[in-house]
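User: I've been trying to design a sequence by hand for this structure and keep getting stuck. Would you show me what you'd pick, starting by listing the structure so we're on the same page?

Assistant: Good idea, let's start from the same input. This is the structure you sent:
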């Protein structure tokens, strides 16, 4: 009798492990959810972005640029964690240099996969092709601008503009993208490291509630 019980217990354990295996695989591959269901079709991201903290580019000791308006261009999330779009930066200036003018500029087309695990999810914004993230042009306006130049910002081989995604596991209409020096971005102007910071609020064009997990 004891042998029969042992065999049955072993079979039960195998069945439990088999049932848990897909859950473990899913946990390692975050996915979008919309209105309580795993995403089934492409969802557009609203162009309108709430800016809690200005988009800030600190290019080594050369200059600090700030942009108070951020928009998303052609942003979409898709099943399979296939996401794409671009950022548009407007109302930009160079800190401490009133004679510098910074025309509006866009990032290159980006892909931004969800990375990490529940409670520690991030977005990693990388160029869809090549390594160029954005080109910033600074001009003199009404006087001398000591940093007037064209600045091509590039990504690292595997990391670009990386943000934390606090609270994204909770389904709601708006979510926060938090970029800081702690989030692991790898951005460069030549060999000069560039710090990108900002805190933005984004939503779906449909107004649907969404999350990631």
């Amino acid at each position: 009798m004891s042998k029969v019980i042992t065999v049955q217990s072993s079979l039960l354990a195998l069945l439990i492990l088999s049932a848990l295996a897909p859950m473990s695989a899913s946990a390692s591959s975050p996915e979008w959810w919309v209105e309580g269901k795993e995403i089934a079709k492409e969802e557009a991201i609203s162009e309108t972005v709430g800016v809690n903290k200005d988009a800030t580019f600190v290019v080594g000791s050369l200059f600090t640029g700030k942009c108070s308006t951020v928009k998303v261009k052609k942003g979409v999330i898709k099943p399979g964690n296939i996401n794409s779009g671009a950022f548009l930066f407007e109302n930009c200036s160079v800190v401490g240099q009133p004679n510098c003018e910074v025309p509006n500029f866009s990032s290159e087309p980006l892909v931004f996969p969800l990375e990490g695990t529940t409670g520690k999810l991030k977005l990693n914004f990388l160029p869809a092709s090549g390594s160029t993230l954005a080109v910033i042009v600074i001009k003199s306006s009404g006087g001398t601008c000591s940093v007037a130049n064209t600045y091509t910002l590039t990504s690292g081989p595997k990391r670009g503009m990386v943000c934390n995604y606090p609270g994204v596991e909770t389904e709601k209409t708006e979510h926060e993208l938090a970029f800081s020096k702690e989030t692991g971005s790898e951005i460069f102007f030549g060999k000069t490291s560039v710090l990108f910071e900002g805190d933005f609020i984004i939503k779906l064009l449909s107004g649907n509630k969404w999350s990631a997990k």
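That's my pick for every position. To get oriented when you compare it with your attempt: Residues 1-30 form one domain. The chain is about 10% helix and 45% strand.
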